[in-house]
Design goal:
Purple Acid Phosphatase, chain A, domain 2; about 20% helix; disordered N terminus; 6-stranded mixed β-sheet; 8 helices; about 20% strand
Length: about 400
């Protein structure tokens, strides 16, 4: 189907730009809605016009044994060099999972603003990230897998209501070199990879908690501790975190053979004491996730997350058939405090809000997995060592 490029000035009235003076048709057929018109427009933009990350190291081979996985989130591309990124780049690691807010593409400087249809701020932010020397050092030193969160999705705290999400997905996938991978063939940015032989097999699952997510329940007391922005949805609210296709895909993934399963969610899974974005805002969806792990007999699950501008380690019995564990790492260069008094009953030790990155160290001989929070110089500040048997791994 022939599609003629629409001038940028027509972006916000695309359905009214269906013909040029003289009656020449721009769209064939004429779009039936403004959303259709946007999609026609986006189809005219070549991938070569979108920012791309510097070439990175290839993922480990499918039979490679994974012993160390790094974790990070929340990188402001407009700030100066990140000591955490440089320390991370010097690590001898098998993978680095960048799990969201990989840029702040929904603001100009310090001011948040809604992205318009051409997503110019988002594209500029990714271009700035590509030019950073600390990011280039990471790309050269460790293979990466990625998830997105709201600020690299394109709109603060947004879900499926974001009208430009399809274009945001394409920008994300082109930048990270995923457009020709399996994830580039379906809506949303979720994907998984598995490494290692039987008995030493690690599955890494990158969830998409944005593209399909329902709206959240707003707080009734803005800024009050525990109710900062959102409340848990009432029972029967029919809210959705992952969308039907992703839920089905996840069920299939959890049935694949693996010893250790690292499930990366851009937002936190386990804690319930705060009113920021988290799975706790949708209690029934959170329980659905736990029930799915139980139903599929998926052993070895450890949750990894970001978003919070502080690092945390959690452990809890009773929600999975074995101990549930989570490592939250945030942020790489957007720290707002030196100490926090937040304490969830599941929490191991105090929060660590200075700049940080996380590490998951798997000792296949010792049959342990250690979750670590490292400061921006690479020193470990928090850790929890878990025996394989504690997470159902024989």
């Amino acid at each position: 189907m022939k599609r003629i490029l629409v001038a940028g000035a027509c972006l916000f009235g695309l359905s009214g730009c269906a013909t040029e003076p003289g009656g020449i048709s721009i769209f064939t057929p004429k779009p039936e809605s403004a959303q259709d018109a946007l999609e026609y427009y986006y189809d005219t933009i070549p991938d070569s016009a979108l920012p791309k990350a510097p070439a990175g190291k290839a993922l480990p081979a499918s039979d490679a044994v994974i012993s160390k996985v790094l974790l990070g989130s929340c990188l402001d591309e407009e700030k100066g060099p990140s000591a955490a990124l440089m320390s991370l780049a010097s690590e001898d690691a098998d993978l680095f999972l960048m799990v969201g807010d990989n840029v702040y593409g929904d603001r100009d400087g310090r001011a948040y603003s809604a992205n318009e249809a051409d997503l110019d701020e988002l594209r500029e932010s990714f271009a700035d990230l590509a030019d950073r020397e600390d990011f280039q050092a990471v790309r050269q030193s460790v293979p990466m897998m990625v998830a997105w969160d709201d600020h690299d999705y394109g709109a603060n705290d947004s879900g499926k209501e974001f009208p430009f999400r399809g274009y945001a997905e394409r920008i994300h996938e082109v930048f990270w070199g995923l457009e020709d991978e399996d994830v580039g063939q379906w809506p949303g940015t979720y994907y998984a990879r598995t490494f290692g032989p039987e008995g030493q097999r690690t599955q890494v699952i990158m969830l998409d908690t944005r593209f399909f997510r329902s709206g959240l329940t707003p707080t009734d007391e803005w800024g009050v501790k525990g109710k900062e922005r959102y409340l848990p949805a009432p029972a029967g609210s029919m809210q959705d975190m992952l969308g039907a296709a992703q839920w089905t895909w996840l069920e299939n993934q959890l049935q694949q053979p693996a010893d250790i399963r690292l499930i990366a969610s851009s937002i936190q899974v386990m804690p319930t004491v705060h009113g920021w974005e988290a799975w706790s805002t949708m209690p029934e969806e959170r329980q659905r996730l736990f029930d799915l792990i139980d139903k599929t007999d998926a052993t070895g699950v450890v949750f990894l997350s970001g978003d919070r501008h502080a690092a945390y380690i959690y452990e809890q019995d009773g929600v999975l058939p074995y101990a549930a564990n989570e490592l939250t790492s945030s942020s790489l260069n957007v720290s707002f405090a030196t100490e926090l008094d937040e304490l969830d009953e599941r929490q191991i030790g105090a929060a660590f809000p200075p700049e940080n990155y996380g590490a998951v160290e798997i000792d296949w001989e010792g049959r342990t997995i250690t979750l670590k929070v490292n400061d921006n110089a690479g020193a470990t500040t928090r850790e929890n060592t878990i025996g394989f048997a504690e997470i159902g791994v024989n």
